[in-house]
UniProtKB/TrEMBL annotation:
Protein name in the entry: Signal peptidase complex catalytic subunit SEC11
Family matches, as Gene3D superfamilies: Umud Fragment, subunit A
Taxonomic source organism: Pleodorina starrii
Topological type in the membrane: Single-pass type II membrane protein
The entry's keywords: Hydrolase, Membrane, Protease, Signal-anchor, Transmembrane, Transmembrane helix
Its EC number(s): 3.4.21.89
Catalytic activity: Cleavage of hydrophobic, N-terminal signal or leader sequences from secreted and periplasmic proteins
Length: 181
């Protein structure tokens, strides 16, 4: 009987040790993802180095669900470039093409007008009331590459929040039940 009790205690100690190890592994995964994101922000000069196209306003150039890679760079923004901008007081950034650029004061201040490729008119109707132009502080980055349709997972998780929580739960369970040999 003593042997069985000793074995049971040893198994409980191993399970606690294994749970702590798995919790640390989960923490390392989350920390690594955060470090990669912050490093991308530093390298690209963009507060959001990766965005998902949420609407069809840029078709046929970019479709809903495409992932765009952004880089701010040091060069001035020019007509024809695809930029991602965020308007004051709004949470969701917009991906559109620059159609006009006005430089003032030796290029230190620029006015930018954008338009979606699939839209009839410019974006002045989207801008905040009384706003005619975008300025440098509105621009999050310019598109330098993309992956088609990969971002549909993000759109589905936003459209169906239960799917997001189910996926996070399944991934958490997989990490916590992973048995190391």
């Amino acid at each position: 009987m003593e042997y069985i009790m000793d074995t049971w205690r040893e198994l409980r100690r191993m399970n606690v040790r294994q749970m702590i190890t798995q919790g640390l592994q989960l923490g390392l995964i989350v920390t690594s993802a955060l470090m990669i994101w912050k490093s991308l922000m530093l390298v690209t000069g963009s507060e959001s180095p990766v965005v998902v196209v949420l609407s069809g306003s840029m078709e046929p150039g970019f479709y809903r669900g495409d992932i765009l890679f952004l880089n701010m760079g040091n060069k001035p923004i020019r007509t024809g470039e695809v930029v991602v901008f965020n308007l004051d007081g709004r949470d969701i950034p917009i991906v559109h093409r620059v159609i006009k650029v006005h430089e003032r004061r030796n290029g230190t201040h620029i006015d930018i007008l954008t338009k979606g490729d699939n839209n009839y008119g410019d974006d002045r109707a989207l801008y905040n009331q009384g706003q005619e132009w975008l300025h440098q502080h509105h621009i999050m980055g310019r598109a330098v590459g993309f992956l088609p349709k990969v971002g549909m997972v993000t759109i589905l998780m936003n459209d169906y929040p239960a799917l997001k929580y189910a996926l996070i739960g399944v991934l958490g369970i997989l990490v916590l039940t992973n048995k190391e040999g």
